[in-house]
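Write out this protein's structure.
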Amino acid sequence: MLERVFHLSENKTTLRRELLAGLTTFMTMAYVVVVNPQILSQAGMPVDGVLFATCVSSAIATLVMGMWANYPIALAPGMSLNAYFTYSIVIGRHVPWQTALGVVLLSGVLFLILTLTNVREQIVNGIPDCLKHGTAAGIGLFIAFIGFRNANIIVGNSSTFVGLGKLSDRQVILALLGLLLIAILVAKRVGSAILVGIVAITIAGIPLGVSHWPEHLFSLPHASGTFLKLDLRSAAKLGLGELVFVFFFVDLFDNVGTLVGVCEEGGFLEDGKLPRASRALLSDALGTIVGALTGTSTVTSYVESAAGVAAGARTGLGNLLIAALFLAAMFCAPIVAAIPSYATSPALILVGALMCGAVARVKWDDFTDAVPAFLTLIATPLTFSIATGLSMGLLSFTFLKLFAGRRREISALIWVLSVLFLLRYIFLGAE
């Protein structure tokens, strides 16, 4: 049955490799189970309800991605989108969180309609190769920067924006040792290298007092605080139309950027196009709808999935394990919370290094390809946004091709996307 559904032999992989890779992906993104409720609680939402919604929506979306699209990409409520939900809409605009959930639902329905009509698939497959390569490398730099930051290897600096952290810090030392350990294991082609590194560094931190055994192993989920609490009538008012548009816009291109980048790294693209793209895009649409109904912000593909791809994932089989672990996390939140960020940081840094290999496929001798790829690559980590990096790259691609007299290389889709990206900056510029 597994062979028939996931085509393991065709993808030259094994059950063990897929499950280990799935476990690796979950370990690198398990923080969402803790962080998402913390952020949304600042909007006045009950933590227990958000925890339930986070786990359920992540499990369903990840399961759909694995079973229907057969890609090793996990999904969960997006970190940038939950911040926009909390700080821009609820706190900034004084919109009740129930109404904001209604906005999320409307954007999810819009995702679903555009997916079923293949509009989103055309967007994914219509992105130029130079931007696909630049996006993959940009995501690599992005998640590597997140890893450095989470481990406090890189910290804020008032004079230079960022700077080197304290090398005497025990967490920094453990993170650097973890980075070295995982790098050695990867060089030796140990399939579970990333997972071994995460577990080893977590355990090593216990006697040093920087990590700890969980106080409790289990806790019961409580869904009533957010389940079906959305206010769809208020969200449907004309005045909130632009909020639906912003949610839709940010997630659309954030998700597209992640899909293209991770799939480029995994070698899933065929002639620059993503097979079964509509199936893959259906997962975040359904996840967002479920998330809004249960009580969380927009669900999207996670760049941490690249950790599983780097560990050998080539099919959606590992997603079954990830979905099961998300459901288990509803009851095992204390265990999930015990995984420190400095232990998962080395995995993100190493995966980032592997993804940067995509820059070798950019045609650097063609300036109209090189500049858009570079802008995509550099803007993604510097703006902390995959969507922004992709938008800058695509706009520069359009303008350079146009003024270089190579207008024929600009497809109708690229023209449309360029106009939409300009509208994106107009809408988000007012935020």
